[in-house]
Amino acid sequence: IGENAPLAMNDFDKPWVKQMARPRRNRKSEGIRAMVRETSLTAANLLQPLFIHEDDHVTEIESMPGCVRHSLASMVEEVRSSLALGVKSFVLFPKIADDLKSNFGQEAHNEHGLVPRAVKLLKKECPEAVVVTDIALDPYSNMGHDGVVVEGEILNDVTVQQLIMQAVCHARAGADVVAPSDMMDGRIGAIRKALDALGFTHVSILSYSAKYASAFYGPFRDALDSHPGFGDKKTYQMDPANGREALIEASLDAAEGADMLMVKPGLPYLDIVYRIRHAVDLPMAVYHVSGEYAMLKAAAQKGWIDEKAVVLETLLSFRRAGADVILTYYAKTAAQWLRDAEASSS
Ligand code: PBG
């Protein structure tokens, strides 16, 4: 093919692409790859959600294989074993008995309620654990919503008043971080002011800033029996079609005193993680939610994906997009996998 040959020949008569920049040089060995790796994933980046209930047995959650509703005793055991693997933080989600549910969700600020007791026990048994509580009325609402309902409407400011009481109640019990997941307007500033006025200036707020009205929460609602009692959550959770709006939510929460911001769900919203990362300098979390977990589990159980490889790749993608913290039901398992990898490479 002479003159028009796509490749030249070098002096040793071997084909030669006259290419000086060769990115593959930085991939040629595990040593080089490790040296230039841009992101890392460690157990300390993971925040483990824990479902708890009043019963003293452990109940499997059918749509979330491998996840259970813990008794308080098994919650402590679970936290101990995760701490031993390097997971340092935990967020509690209670399943509340139907007869304790009400429209105002008063049980949410009962100082003898399940969550305050769980927080106290955890801080006593495992003082080094970072304990995060979810602030929202849905587990306590007989309407199955995150706020107080009047004539089919989810009231904003009346709900914020309830959330303040819930946050203060959790702070009194010893929570390190409160995490409002309700998406009411103005709740971060209101909760911050209430905590500060009562001397809880040290309690942090992790705001679910961009929480979407997503179909990926189904298995979580099975776990807590918290499916909306009527309608959907579209008047408070965000429209999945919107990206810029997430930046508005994030900057409001930052201005109102949030210490960390969260995007939820995870994988379908990586663009939102990336955009907020570049707009706000606060630490960021992402929630790898129940539906995402269920999809991975189902495919893994079918033998259609390599669970460990796909999960670790997914978690790394959150870090690459800009998340510091990842809430995931895989926290403990991933920590074990990371530890195994460490052991086999040294
Ligand atoms: C509710 C809340 C939800 C989740 C965390 N907090 C569900 C909802 O908004 O209905 C979902 C988490 C998951 O799906 O893993 N305040």
From TrEMBL:
EC number of this enzyme: 4.2.1.24
Record's keyword terms, sorted: Heme biosynthesis, Lyase, Porphyrin biosynthesis, Signal
Superkingdom of source: Eukaryota
GO terms classed as biological process: heme biosynthetic process
Pathway in which this enzyme or protein is active: Porphyrin-containing compound metabolism; protoporphyrin-IX biosynthesis; coproporphyrinogen-III from 5-aminolevulinate: step 1/4
One example GO MF annotation: zinc ion binding
Recorded catalytic activity of this chain's protein: 2 5-aminolevulinate = porphobilinogen + 2 H2O + H(+)
GO cellular component: a single term: cytosol
TM stretches of this protein: none
The keyword Lyase is assigned to this record: yes
InterPro entries to which the protein is assigned, alphabetical: ALAD (IPR001731), ALAD_AS (IPR030656), Aldolase_TIM (IPR013785)
Subunit (UniProt): Homooctamer.
Family under the similarity heading: Belongs to the ALAD family.
Biological role: Catalyzes an early step in the biosynthesis of tetrapyrroles. Binds two molecules of 5-aminolevulinate per subunit, each at a distinct site, and catalyzes their condensation to form porphobilinogen.
Protein name: Delta-aminolevulinic acid dehydratase
Originating organism: Chrysophaeum taylorii
